[in-house]
Design brief:
Oligomer: single chain
Helix content: over 70%
Bound molecules: heme C
Number of helices: 6
Low-confidence stretches: none
Number of strands: 0
């Protein structure tokens, strides 16, 4: 029980820190498009987190749909980081392009982990969801720590 609570708290903290940096009014073009994609990833993650972590009633359909949305958005997001696409508003860091293979690898991890989660939900494997969700959420953190500007 402690374990689950701890994970839920950790995941909520991750989501809160993602959502607090929501000041992207004025973003345009490809930067806005990828922010919107990341925002939808954040929204879907927030929807499925309490279900996958066991603090809300099981709802396999919602987890399947949310995880599928995340996988799709992650794939599309990779096309929204053309080299040097930085402006005043973006939280993307320059090392995305000097370390592209790693960035791309993490985004692909996110989509494959989200696909794995969607499949478990589709197969009714409700007891596997917590681990699969935690694994997926781990990729958010890894990438943000390295490739996203930390806001105070
Ligand atoms: C491969 C790297 C990577 C992965 C994986 C990743 N993110 Fe992000 N995320 C970013 C970058 C880079 C930005 C900043 C984009 C910008 O400002 O141009 C960002 C921004 C965000 C934002 C802010 C969007 C906004 O409103 O501007 C949220 C919310 C977010 N991510 C949530 C998540 C969640 C939840 C996950 C995991 C399910 C995740 N991200 C996985 C790289 C990643």
């Amino acid at each position: 029980m402690f374990h689950k609570t701890f994970l839920t708290v950790a995941v909520s903290a991750l989501l809160l820190s993602s959502f607090s940096a929501n000041a992207h009014d004025g973003a345009t073009g490809v930067v806005k498009e990828r922010m919107d994609l990341m925002k939808s990833i954040g929204k879907n993650t927030k929807t499925i987190a309490p279900i996958a972590m066991g603090s809300m009633d099981m709802d396999l359909k919602t987890v399947e749909e949310g995880a599928t949305n995340i996988a799709k958005a992650a794939k599309e997001a990779l096309t929204k980081y053309p080299e040097g696409s930085l402006d005043d508003i973006t939280e993307a860091k320059e090392n995305i392009w000097t370390d592209w293979a790693k960035f791309e690898g993490l985004m692909k991890d996110l989509s494959s982990n989200a696909e794995a989660l969607a499949k478990l939900a589709a197969d009714g494997e409700e007891f596997e969801l917590t681990d699969a969700f935690t694994k997926m959420a781990g990729t958010c953190k890894k990438c943000h720590m390295e490739f996203r500007v930390k806001k105070p």
